[in-house]
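Notes from the 1:1 (GR / supervisor)

We went over the backlog. Supervisor wanted to see one worked example end to end before approving the batch request, so GR pasted a single chain during the call. The sequence is below; no edits were made to it. Supervisor asked that the structure be written out right there so they could see what the output format looks like.
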Amino acid sequence: RMTCVSCGEQTTARLPIFADTDRFPHLRADACQTCRRYIITVDLRKEPEAVPVVDELTALPLDLHAQELGFAKITPNLMAIG
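Structure output shown during the call:
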């Protein structure tokens, strides 16, 4: 990832990625230390049959981890988490 979708930050060192590749190989939380926001990313290359709006719901552990670190979700998911 090269740019924060929320604030436009481009410094790679300020754009951490949180992932659990064993449990969720196609999901990750892309965060930004500048604006303290994050978004869940669904990689369809790793799971072509994924349904992003549904699969994002399984990313709750990633949501909780990012929020524990002080990041706020850019947009809530279907369960209004974020």
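Supervisor's comment: The CA atoms of residues 53 and 78 lie 7 Å apart.
Batch request approved.
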